[in-house]
Design goal:
The protein has 149 residues and is mostly helical. The protein folds into 2 domains: 11-83, 3-Layer(aba) Sandwich (SRF-like), CATH 3.40.1810; 87-145, no CATH class. 63% of the residues lie in helices and 4% in strands. The protein has helices spanning 14-39, 61-72, 76-82, 86-121, 131-143, and strands spanning 45-47, 56-58. The chain has a two-stranded antiparallel sheet with strand order 1-2. A hairpin with an 8-residue loop joins strand 1 and strand 2. The N and C termini lie far apart (63 Å).
């Protein structure tokens, strides 16, 4: 995937836009087929074009109708389980990013405390540190086990 923005395509003339839409449609259907096989899921696509009365349906009108009808006949609780809303998708992405940030913060805190521990070993006084640094050092020191012979 290229990651290009599509905003400027709105201003293309119809003779340029039509072949581009056809290529994208074929690509979309190919991806749907791959997803269906790879993930062992049933996929159906319905697209409504502005200048067409009938929708564009994949894989066929009969199969898409069967799939959507089967989905719509499920109890509401089952439908919700099978649906991924945009809101849920974004919430999951945000949660994953927040977790990454927290992990990096923990790693940075650990590195900082190891640096402070080395500074203390090299003569830095404890009275030069703030409460957060002292608390972190206490935790780091607790992780080390000292054995006497």
């Amino acid at each position: 995937m290229t990651g290009r923005k599509l905003g400027h395509f709105k201003f293309l003339n119809e003779s340029t836009k039509k072949p581009m839409v056809e290529r994208r449609k074929v690509g979309l259907f190919k991806k749907a087929q791959e997803l269906s096989v790879l993930c062992d899921v049933e996929v159906g696509i319905v697209m409504y074009a502005q200048n067409q009365r009938d929708p564009i349906v994949w894989p066929s009108m009969e199969l898409a109708t069967q799939r959507f009808t089967r989905f719509l006949s499920l109890p509401e609780s089952e439908k919700v389980k099978k649906m991924v809303t945009h809101e849920k998708y974004l919430r999951d992405r945000i949660d994953a990013e927040v977790e990454k940030i927290k992990k990096k913060e923990r790693e940075n805190e650990k590195k900082e405390m190891n640096i402070l521990m080395n500074q203390i070993i090299n003569g830095r006084g404890l009275n030069e540190m703030d409460a957060r640094q002292l608390k972190g050092l206490y935790i780091v020191a607790g992780q080390y086990t000292f054995h006497s012979k």
